[in-house]
Amino acid sequence: MTLLDQGYINLGLTLALLNSFAVVTVGFILAPIMTATGSAYGGTYRTARIVEGAFLAISIFVAQSGYEFLGLSTDSSEPKRCVP
After folding, report:
1. What pLDDT, in 10s, does the model give residues 21-61?
2. I need a labelling partner for 16 at 20 to 30 A (CA). Which of 38, 45, 65, 66 fits?
3. Which pLDDT belongs to residue 68?
4. d(CA 66, CA 57)
5. Distance CA 37, CA 34 (A)
6. Of 16, 9, 11, which Cα lies nearest the Cα of 72?
7. What domain range is 56 assigned to?
8. pTM of whole model > 0.90?
């Protein structure tokens, strides 16, 4: 029995969303430190981390929708077939 069969996909999605949140948090924590030490790139670093966190979060939802589209959802006993 695999983790997908047991319904642990939501655990993975939750951990991935927490990772996205952590990426953005690191950006907010380190940007003022970089600016205080004389680096002019603090704002750019913060923006880059926000964009990275947003892309990670978006990719999670895209992956989830693809997971359901391919018929891998644990909601139904009969998987959907994609016929070209």
Report:
1. 999 999 899 888 888 887 778 888 889 999 999 998 888 88
2. 45
3. 62
4. 14
5. 5
6. 9
7. 9-69
8. no
Number of Cβ atoms within 10 Å of the Cβ of 37: 8
Residue 44: predicted pLDDT:
87
Residue 2, domain member (yes or no): no
**Domain presence at residue 74:** no
List pLDDT tens digits, range 4-25: 556 666 777 888 889 999 999 9
Angle between helices 42-69 and 9-36 (to 10 degrees): 170
77 inside domain: no
Give, in order, the Cα–Cα distances in Å from 23 to each of 27, 34, 42, 70.
Answer: 6, 16, 15, 29
In a domain, 16, yes or no: yes
**Number of domains, the chain:** 1
* Half-sphere exposure at residue 53, Cβ-oriented, CA atoms within 13 angstroms: 18
